[in-house]
């Protein structure tokens, strides 16, 4: 048999044992049975309120998708050139870097840009990613057909 805590046990006895049994045991002064249901409902309502409130506050404090702060900030560690693989063991893990948004857009929207929907950012990213085929950070990929 496991550990039995008195407060939950007393609560369960008060909530489920009929009044006649409690009176026969000499227990005549106890709260209304309304509270046996009301208190757990209030607690669960409070839990949901706190959960929804925190989620709402976080959503209100999140920058919009078109904000520049969603793309980069002063703490970004952007990779500007291909990392050197010389003087490193075969299982070397390179330093973590942020991928520039222009490279991400070039990889995601390459087909649309080649069909005439390109902008200056794609052109710059395309020229930057020609050397990226050799970058192990981005894996093996092809930029052209």
Automatic annotation (TrEMBL):
UniProt KW keywords: Membrane, Transmembrane, Transmembrane helix
Residue ranges of coiled coil: none
Alphabetical list of Pfam families matching this protein: PIG-P
Alphabetical GO biological process terms: GPI anchor biosynthetic process
Residues annotated as domain PIG-P: 10-109
Membrane topology, record value: Multi-pass membrane protein
InterPro entries: GPI_Anchor_Biosynth, PIG-P
Localization, UniProt: Membrane
Entry's transmembrane regions: 34-57
Main location: membrane
Highest taxon listed in the record's lineage: Eukaryota
One GO CC term on file: membrane
Name the UniProt record assigns to this protein: PIG-P domain-containing protein
Native species: Umbelopsis ramanniana AG
